[in-house]
Amino acid sequence: MNKKQIQMSDETAHNSAISIIDALKISGVIEFSICLFFAKLVSYTFLDWLPLYISQTNPGISSSQSAYMTIFFDLGGIVGGISAGYLADKTGASALSCIVMLIFAIPSLGIYYLFGNQSMAMNEALQFIAGIFVNAPYALITTAVSAELGSKVPSKSAMATVSAIIDATGSIGSAIGPSLAGVVSEIGWEYVFIVVMIADLCALLSILRIGFNDCKRLIFIWRTKKSRNNSANQEIISVTTY
């Protein structure tokens, strides 16, 4: 086999699509798929049922008004998605960024349920805050995380397969969430909020391993920079003394 044939075979292997099994073997694909399943479950539950919840728990608000009010949840999602992306780029720790958002998402949902009915302004403000933390992991995983995981293997076609696996798993959650909320809401809206809070907790737990690795890597980088700075300072002091 000549040099040209070897080069062509390498390019073919580089461009060939990987199998689903091989994509699942990539570290982080299964964990982020599970995380997105629960994150989209929560996000789509709110998108589908929030107008009805507002109209039923606030007698003075019509169904059309409640539909307009839910825009604040979407606006919060925009801010959350941008914030999560910036945090992930700044730290290089996507899993840790998702964990931070999920930690705040759980209490924000509880606070919205407890105090969202105090006034229209309070409802809109708490919607916005909940939207930031609920939608941020969903936005980050479907974009930056999928691309990052897909680039871990030599094949150029791996990114589409990895993204499809992660997004398809999340779509299952987006289908189950609103359906489950429809059944649970007949018992009481408080149980719907309990379900979505548990779902966010499950999303958080699913990426703890990757988040722990991110923490170890960031600590190592910080210690390396600190040791380099100390070495540089000592050299400056020795030169000055000489």
Automatic annotation (TrEMBL):
Domain of life, source organism: Eukaryota
Topology class, membrane: Multi-pass membrane protein
Pfam families, per the entry: MFS_1
Annotated keywords: Membrane, Transmembrane, Transmembrane helix
Keyword Transmembrane: yes
GO CC, alphabetical: membrane
Record-annotated membrane-spanning stretches: 29-47, 67-88, 95-115, 127-147, 159-185, 191-212
Organism name: Medioppia subpectinata
Subcellular location: Membrane
Protein's UniProt name: Major facilitator superfamily (MFS) profile domain-containing protein
Ranges in coiled-coil conformation: none
Main location: membrane
Domain Major facilitator superfamily (MFS) profile: 29-242
InterPro entries: MFS, MFS_dom, MFS_trans_sf
GO molecular function term, any single one: transmembrane transporter activity
